[in-house]
Amino acid sequence: MPFYMKDTKIYTLAIESSCDDTSAAVLLNDKVLSNVVAGQPIHEQYGGVVPELASRAHQQNIVPVVDVAIKKAGITKEQLSCIAFTQGPGLMGSLLVGGSFAKSISMALNIPLIAINHMKAHILAHFIDEEGFPKPEFPFLALTISGGHTQIVQVNSFFDMKIIGETTDDAVGEAFDKSAKILGLPYPGGPLVDKFAQEGNPKAFPFTKPKVPGLNFSFSGLKTQILYFVQKNVAENPNFIEENKADICASIQHTIIHILMDKLKLAVAETGIKRIAIGGGVSANSGIRKTLKEAETKFGWTTYIPKFQYTTDNAAMIASAGWYRLRDHGPSGLDVGAIPHLSLTGSTVRGNRAGRK
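Given the sequence above, the corresponding structure tokens read:
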């Protein structure tokens, strides 16, 4: 047995700093002992994440966040077995803060360092030992939905994952946030669209779903359609948004959910896999969670919806992925660095999908 797995109790400290949340967590094997997240409200006044401000805030937050996570776990830093951190994808400055801090702890305590792919961690959050949340059986399909990513992933094992469908332009979280901005809602707008949608008629304003072949997605055209729709109606009635806010949000959310579900149904038909798990910040959306749960009865699927606190960016999912990575493949070397455009398969990608929740 490798030296780093000689103990049956593995305490993993994890750091997540891919975007604008500084998070640290401690897990005992796959059981969460602490999961601390510090947000950055400064970005609200800019209507989005400002990379330079994000990295500065991480520098201010990381020491107290890690300190609180260790204390809440009820252990000392000397008891730590390993440290995991987010290697990518994400904002370069933010990733560097978390990665550099993790390396320092690794060298100071002489414990293994584990570099983790942020999107894989969203999927492996389902394997956190949490009562009432069963772990998926392999193989399963994972729908990873966030501000920067929209992917359907065939998950054959902990680290054997294959993207079988993804967005060709904008991510689903981008569609929610930009729609919210069009409606004059403050940042972050996605959760507000979800809130107002619960009070509205989802069929009040029909939007055309984009026609994209295969299992891929596209949300750019939908955003433009929503913009023109709002502009036209506001020109005719300046109070149109305020009078119809709930119905507009419900109609937007209804359209987006059906786009996601159409592709999931196609993925199930093509693969024969009926176990579906969701992950990423947008999986916190109440409409998506409700629709996916209904699919169990409607389509005979087995669905896995993570605990709410493990949907958005958090270090517990990084620690979970780190523990399984250490167990199955061993640690990373100290020469690993931040990769802002890291893809799920380990290669680099370009475009606007890196660094968003």
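The chain is about 40% helix and 15% strand. Try to locate this feature in the token string yourself.
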